Model the fold of this input.
Amino acid sequence: MTETTQKTVVERAAGLSDDVLESIETGRKAAIESVRKFINALEEATPALVDPVRRKTVIDAALDLAEELSAARIEFLRSMVRNAADTVKD
Done:
């Protein structure tokens, strides 16, 4: 591989890393906004007299789901970057 080609590959890999980090941040913000919307909808749909413990259980489950989805997305993106890095090395 020539030095120019290698530099271009490295630049593309760096750009890919930046894109992945930006995608992770966008996904994190989207997950937070989704949970916020869910909590607002839950509060509108359930009367104030509903057992607060049950409401907290539902909200905690929604937060756990958002966290698991975000973690899965991050792992997927990490896998993509590792595969791209392996491809660049070859």
Summary: The longest helix spans residues 3-45. Residues 3-89 form one domain.
